[in-house]
Amino acid sequence: MRAVPSASWRNVREVEFFNSAQHHLLDTKFSLSTEGMLDVTGIDEPTEIWHNQLEVGCLDKVRFMRVQCCGKLSSVVSAKLMQRLHNIQRLEVWWCDSLEMIFDLQEGVCADVAEKETFPNELIVLKLKYLPKLTHIWKNISQQTHCFENLRFLRVQCCDNLRYIFTISMANVLVNLDDLTVEHCEKVEKIVTRENDEIFFEEFTLSNL
């Protein structure tokens, strides 16, 4: 992985953030374009706190969500937020130094087969890069989940603490995934792992702290 000087990195992220035209400012850290692109940048609060800062009505309009440069964020999408992002098709997350997981659905969202149509399952593209502490893309996901059935494109780059991409049960959920790229992730040992291997990885990490 090529090192990026701090001054250059600052310029890059500013260009990337302000490149989308016609932003409607929700807050100094949130912006929503007329095309349905939600930018979240510089958030340093716990996940649930910044989720509550988002206007409920605006989330139905979100098609593309980009989270970047959130130094203290530990996860991106909780169960509650997932229930509000009905139409999201694309999610990109980068430059979040403390991020440990992307989806933390510990409250069992999308688990009820009878309520399949109630929850969002439109996500098609997921891109992750420069997340040095990421250990899980999906956490606490039910084997009956339907939220990610339409995911087709997954790219993971420069996530040096990640050991695997998904468990066998999660792989069975991703029935339409046809483009997977994993680049410059130093600790990745396998793409698909068994659930008991996942537990082993976590115990091994904790025992070596």
Strand content: 25-35%
Provide the CATH topology: Leucine-rich repeat, LRR (right-handed beta-alpha superhelix)
CATH architecture: Alpha-Beta Horseshoe
Helix/sheet category: alpha/beta
**Can you tell me the residue ranges where pLDDT is under 50 for at least 5 consecutive residues?**
1-26, 112-118, 199-209
Number of strands: 13
Total domain modules: 1
- Provide the CATH top-level class: Alpha Beta
Largest sheet: 8 strands, mixed
Widest sheet: strand ordering: 1-2-3-4-6-8-10-12
Describe the global form: globular
Helix content estimate = 10-25%
Number of helices: 6
* CA-atom Rg in angstroms: 17 Å
Average of per-residue pLDDT values: 77
Distance between the termini: 25 Å
Order of helices and strands: HEEEHHEEHEEEEEEHEEH
